[in-house]
Amino acid sequence: MLPAMRFAVALLVAATSPVVAAPVRDLATDPHPGIHYERWVDAGVPARIHLVRLDLSSAELALYATKEADRGLTTKQLATRRGAQVAINGDAFAVAGYRPRGLAAGDGVNDVKAWSSTLDDAASSVLHLRRSAERTLAVILPPEDVTTFDELPIGTQGVISGRPLILRSGGVEPEVCDDPTTLACERAPQSAVAVSEDGHTMWLAVVDGWQAGSIGLRLRELGVFLKAQGAYMAMGLDGGGASTLVLDNVTTNAPSDGVERTVANHLAIRYGALLKGRLMGRICEGDVASCAADATKYLPNAEVTLDDGRVQQVGSDAFYNFGSVTARYVCATARLAGYQTQTRCDYVSAGEDEYNSIGLERGDDPRDAGVPDAPPGDATPSADAVTGDGNPIDGGGGGCCHTGSNGHTSHTALVAVVAWMLGRRRGTNRRTRNPS
Question: Which of 135, 194, 271, 353 could form a disulfide with 231 if both were Cys (CB 3.0 to 4.6 A apart)?
Fold first, then answer.
């Protein structure tokens, strides 16, 4: 049967069927640590759902959004190119030039750029990703939080948009049936991504549709299903013939065209040992420029804490050296009695040594001097903070600013709070290297 005929048959069945979706799990596997796959079926609709659950706290999972140079691939092709075990299709797109409808940004560490001619709007939700210490942080912003790439948290490594929003703060959103870019109110092939309230879990869901064994689901029905799994925020991805889920180089779902479509962008998940770099530098008094030129400025015995929790105490050369740092935006915090605690951050690339010296000023860490309350739904006023909606994430993990060892807020933290109040993020499309 031709795709157009299958579509017509599916619409006829969906229009005359009062059946409420009630899927039952018939298959569950754990192909890799941190990656769990399930298949759910509903004979009454009929419908078939393919679901992958990801443990974002795993140090061995890395998430990638498609870079612009890789547009127009099938989902399986993108998975192969990235060496990824899991991949799902991304945003709806304009066929000419494979341009996503919403904001998109490609994978990478220090050279991530938004796709040309892509913008967020009041109809699209935005999923943004970044590496923090040895885990992934993923946040879904609701449509009304219209944003630009430069307003997203520093260190953002990937962005995928989608519509409509399916779950908001644990509640199923009302159906939006007048959006011509979605199939929200028809039982059809669907794709969606969801995250938990604590930010530790992500779900990827693809529903087979427009075929005898599965006509598909409405997006509201998929939202009810994802809520039952524990999801807190969820958004739809491109549906219809684009809906594709790949697991270990196998297309797990049955694309409605009979073959995979080429699409604009994707979300890919890679399991295994991640590529590492090294962060090193000296702890000096005053300006960091003095570190390389004046040994009298060295501050031995300073304690340096990496944002993944590792701690080193520098010796007489005031030099710290952290190896096996996952390629990402990384921060180191220096503390020494009689000096103000300071944090300095930079990008670490795979296989490279990054110098990140830190200058300390004499004095004591100031007490909490007018630090505003954290925005609703977040533990600290970090760069990820959003008011109202979105899924909160661990406040201290991976942020570039931390409190001192005595619990007092550092000068860097106060600067970060002010920066957050003025604007959520400075641009990260250009790498800023430290001078020493």
Answer: 194
Cα–Cα distance between 95 and 227 in angstroms, integer? Answer: 32
Which residues are 27's β-sheet partners? 39
| Strand 250-251, strand 93-94: pairing | unpaired
Rounded Cα distance, 112 and 125, in Å: 20
pLDDT tens, per residue, the chain with 436 residues: 444 444 444 444 444 445 778 999 999 999 999 999 999 999 999 999 999 999 999 999 999 999 999 999 999 999 999 999 999 999 999 999 999 999 999 976 667 889 999 999 999 999 999 999 989 999 999 999 999 999 999 999 999 999 999 999 999 999 999 999 999 999 999 999 999 999 999 999 999 999 999 999 999 999 999 999 999 999 999 999 999 999 999 999 999 999 999 999 999 999 998 889 999 999 999 988 878 788 999 999 999 999 999 999 999 999 999 999 999 999 999 999 999 999 999 999 999 999 999 999 999 998 754 333 333 333 333 333 332 333 333 332 222 332 333 333 333 333 333 333 334 333 333 333 333 3
Q: Dihedral, CA atoms, 95, 98, 101, 102, nearest 10 degrees? A: 180
